[in-house]
Specification:
This protein has 183 residues and is mainly beta. 11% of the residues lie in helices and 42% in strands. The chain is built from 2 helices and 12 strands, in the order βββαβββββββαββ. The protein has a 6-stranded antiparallel sheet with strand order 3-4-5-6-7-8. Strands 9-10-11-12 form a 4-stranded antiparallel sheet, with no helix packed on it. Strands 1-2 form a two-stranded antiparallel ribbon. β11 and β12 form a beta hairpin. The chain is globular. It starts with a strand and ends with a strand.
Length: 183
Amino acid sequence: MRWLLASGVVLVCLFSVAVAGTDTVDDPAAWLSARGVKDPAKQLGDTCCCVEVSVGSASEHALRCSEATSIPTEGADIAVREVIRVVRAGKVVKVLEAWTALENLDLPPRSPPALKLELAIAPSARTATIVDAGGSRNRCDELPPRTKAVTAADRVYRTWRDRICASRGTYRWGGGRFVHAAR
């Protein structure tokens, strides 16, 4: 899978959302279209690595994807978010959207990401948890304290880092979507 960012850069999917017992979705637009969505391409961002999952008390079929966003720093940095979408009455509804990773594309292939959180959906499909499971160059609990940044790019990077770490925690199903519970 690849990402085509607005900047025209094509990226190989760096983050796998492979989940045991789920089906990989190679064409997310076709998945949405098969469920009655008109013009599904408008409903997707820079989407990659999609799988079908079940969510909520009614065990709705959902599309879980990673999406990349370029961030304006001095390097080739991207932020990645996990988005889970369902289709209701022919409309796409985002039921979870959380930033989960920060990566620098200038690093050699297979280098660990700068920061990567893990999203897991409970078997009940009514609870999702995002944790800092390790495996990245940094951990949210071990990051240096926020200080006055030297450059504008450094301030942007730190803002994204803080946004990603704020995604940690438990999300409970309520009102037809996952809601971030207080930590």
